[in-house]
Protein 1
Amino acid sequence: LGEGLGVRPFITTNPMNRNLSLSLTGAALLAPMANATAQTKQVKHKKPMNIVYIMSDDHSYQTISAYDKRFIETPNIDWIANNGVRFTNSYVANSLSGPSRACMLTGKHSHANGFTDNTKTFDGSQQTYPKLLQKAGYQTAMIGKWHLTSDPTGFNYWDILIGQGDYYNPDFKCNGQKTKRPGYVTNVITDLALDWLENKRDKDKPFCLLLHHKAPHRVWDPDTCDLDLYNDRNYPLPATFYDNYEGRQAAAKQKMSIIKDMDIVYDLKMADKENEIHSNKWLEKWGREARLRMSPSQREQWDKHYDPIIKKFKEDKLTGKALAEWKYQRYMHDYMRVIHSVDRNVGRVIDYLRKHNLLDNTLIVYTSDQGFYMGEHGWFDKRFMYEESFRTPLLMYMPGGKRGDITEMVQNIDYAPTFLQLAGVQVPKDIQGVSMLPLLKGKRVPWRKSLYYHYYEFPDEHNVCRHYGVKDQRYVLIHFYDDIDAWELYDLKTDPSQLNNIYGRPGTETITRNLKKELLRLQEQYDDPIRHKMVKE
Ligand code: SGN
Ligand code: CA
């Protein structure tokens, strides 16, 4: 299913005009048209609102053209922004998959929902927004990457990838039963979601569908029909690619460097048939074994694409900067191909909703479980409270709602109260997030002036130290603790790339004092037990 659709959208766009006009070739027509019927009318919601929540895994805002046009065109994801809103200051509470998902489901920070890092098991007996929606009469479904170890609760239907899931012919657990499904994961998840919308729900009831892609998580395996996309593109090297991490202890300790930690065989697919290319013992083994999941036809297309690249790689014998930049280009090519497939499949969902007249009463959300590094600071992965991974894309289409940008600082703990309020369900008092519904309706309301963040997973494969911090509209103050004790302060106005740690510099005393006060206030407000141990300085 889904292999070989081969849709290549082309964009004609005036950069000053955020309403892209799409001209699409071939089967284009999978892509929804920019002028949907619903957005111009002020719809009074007599009918209850449905929710289609699409979340990918590790999708950076840098690689969504509604946010950034340097790398890729994503016309279908952009449709949501062009017919709805683009959040320009959207953040997570803990930049990692499982923790993010737990924050979204509960509307609470990690310490309060208990899922602080990916080694935890989610306590599914606790309150979540799907449970509350289900109680209020919604049909609820969870399809795709779940990553919370315990079985989902609060869903009429669930069909989840096992663990991280696989790109090819993935294994699922469907309402308790294990099944292997043929095809490419992004297509398969979308097929399951459309099948649920069409055949498996009670159509007399409102619905909430959580469609969670595995893509574009490591190791960025493209669909076979997308392998040859973007062959001619050369991606601009980020200005901070050769960062030396001066003044930043935790950044210097990480193991998420494209140069040092990205594996030639595992991540970059140089598993040669002659078995002459060797890399990290375990990663190489996994990289070679991963191909065994493929069907003969998938494998044939894969080899047709990668064999010449492997051959050239062997001939070129690159070293130093040339090797580093080759790795960056390889990474970017595969990542963009994986995104292209996500975008095409988002188009299939919007198209379904349009064809079934659901655009008048459905909120469509597109987001990622966190941001991701596209070579900034020389990195892939996430975790840090630096912009690329702390921020996450967030686009919403709400019929009758505001169009344009929402600039308020929102966080993934805000999703649950938003969806509950939209469904007319009372938001429980213990939810820590704030409903964004007034913002979606274009109302000016008093809004938070700062955000709280807390990351826990250390030590782990990428070796990012534990840290918490506060961000206001201009500054970010971060405290790395546990194995090290290091504070960092950045002025995002003068140093958006966060290269210059100004903590302790003369002239920053008042800013630092105020931010520490605010940090403590947030730790008290959210009742994070860490405050008892720290922040006495
Ligand atoms: C896996 C990846 C890591 C990644 C974590 C967490 N390694 O362990 O690179 O940081 O997931 O990602 S892999 O070899 O299995 O690909 S998360 O988004 O699921 O939290
Ligand atoms: Ca993730």
Note: Residues 320-355 form the longest helix (36 residues).
Protein 2
Amino acid sequence: MKQTRRNFIRTGSLTAIAGLSGINTIFGAMNNSASTRKFKNKGLSLRFKPYDLQLKHTFTLAGSSRTTTPVMLTEIMYEGITGYGEASMPPYLGESHETATRFLSSVNLEQFNDPFQLETILSYVDNLAPGNCAAKASVDIALHDLVGKIMGQPWYKIWGYDPAQTPNTSFTIGIDTAEVVKQKVREAPQFKILKVKLGRENDKEMIEAIRSETNVPLCVDVNQGWTDRQMALDMIYWLKEKGIVFVEQPMPKTAIDDMAWLTQHSPLPTIADEALQRLPDVKKVHGVYSGINIKLMKCTGMREAHKMLTLARALDMKVMIGCMTETSCAVSAAAQLSPMVDWADLDGSLLISNDPYKGMEVIDGKVTLIDKPGIGIRTI
Ligand code: MG
């Protein structure tokens, strides 16, 4: 723990800040009581710390396998109150501890002395450099957490959402041998929907293995793995017979015409994941896919995710909210939006063994929001 405190980096100076007041906030008591407000800040202050998530199981996608995920944990402090944020950076998305350190070191929040000006502050952060979406999300989430704490309300309430409307979350079963897949299904009896990674030679074998263990609804994520649209359509008809409820990113993100054809003919909804990142992409995938998978790490955080959700609804598209392997910090931030989505895939914190936070819980398979201010997390 001393090591992690030493590694916490404050923007601007890049100096370690062990010994400064408020240093205990990330793994200590929340520092947000009225009595701490005597610590007058000139402006907002940001600090960040690299961290590696340890995965419980090797995570296999159509393209790669890994056992750890690098993340950056952030804090924004204002008048003795601390908001928490996170950037999750699976390697295939191109961000890393190094890129996030470089980007976050360029963020100067001390020029802002009103945290409620989310639009101004987060537009400034977004315009500092292109890309860096996860690093930007780590600032966005911390700022939302801070503002919610100042208001004394969780974001699902600020947005006007009913916490009883949260969906069940899917639980992801990675690509593996039939025996291992069966074992993973047996270990997840509390989940009311399972997500299956497809896109290899053994797709039907994977589904048959799971169906030999459970009849719960399944969704599939092909991660761009099918390249022939007629084969994809035949497969989707087969999947419909097996109780699959939607198909995520069946074809390469560049196969726009084939994908529009597939969606038009598909008996199941198709969901864009790799094919979209940010708000302007929602219009681009409209008419090509049935719906979108919003992830905070792709779209720079809660502010833009909320806008994407609203726009997709206006366009009569399906919406799911997803995540990377993340701590309870980023997952709890995403969960604030979940009462308004069709499907949630918020199992990221369940896949790791070293979560430093406690927040949104999955109870009996359902996303369960906590009536605590901000994004509703605490350090453990
Ligand atoms: Mg996906």
Note: Residues 198 and 222 are 5 Å apart (CA to CA).
